[in-house]
Specification:
By secondary structure, the protein is an alpha+beta fold. It contains four helices and eight strands; from the N terminus they run H-E-E-E-E-H-E-E-E-E-H-H. It is globular.
Length: about 180
């Protein structure tokens, strides 16, 4: 049994990605950045009272994005990665699963990643969650080129790629 068991994909494309991820999990290491397909954990952060979402500028890709990234060496659950990365990238210390009370996968998509910084072309199996904060003004930019911006979902959706737009659609269902 894995953390992916019980997740119900929304549509044929996501079902195919979940099946690929499940096969990769069964076959071996999906956590090493050197694996051609590896798991990343990410999240969209929401402020439920205002219905706003938090986007982060991603300098490498030159786009507005959700928060998240690669697992640390001791992490073997995408929730752990998503929560750690969200805290690191936003400065928010009160993040919790939304709508909760337990973390639930909101979206899974395999995303192609072009070669850069000594890495070959590879794929991220991005396992996405929704996190909430009660203190949206407590954000702190991780560094100068990682601006954070709170936006209504409809506006945020116009600023992101298809992957993040699909995650925003999932998050909007619970706001």
């Amino acid at each position: 049994m894995t953390w992916l068991d019980g997740y119900v994909p929304d549509g044929a494309e996501e079902a195919a990605d979940v099946a690929r991820l499940a096969a990769a999990l069964a076959a071996g290491d999906v956590w090493s950045r050197s694996a051609p397909l590896h798991v990343t954990g990410s999240a969209i952060v929401v402020h439920p009272p205002t219905g706003r979402v938090l986007l982060r500028w991603h300098e490498r890709y030159q786009l507005w994005n959700h928060v998240g990234g690669h697992a640390d060496d001791d992490e073997r659950h995408p929730w752990d990665t998503a929560l750690r990365e969200a805290v690191e990238e936003t400065g928010l210390r009160d993040l919790r699963p939304w709508p909760g009370p337990e973390p639930a996968i909101a979206f899974v998509q395999i995303v192609p990643v072009p070669a850069a910084r000594g890495e070959r072309d590879h794929e991220h199996a991005d396992v996405c969650y929704v996190l909430a904060t009660d203190d949206p003004e407590a954000t702190v930019d991780e560094h100068d080129d990682a601006e954070l911006r709170w936006l209504p979902v409809a506006e945020a959706r116009t600023m992101v790629n298809d992957h993040v737009a699909a995650l925003l659609d999932r998050a909007a269902r619970s706001l």
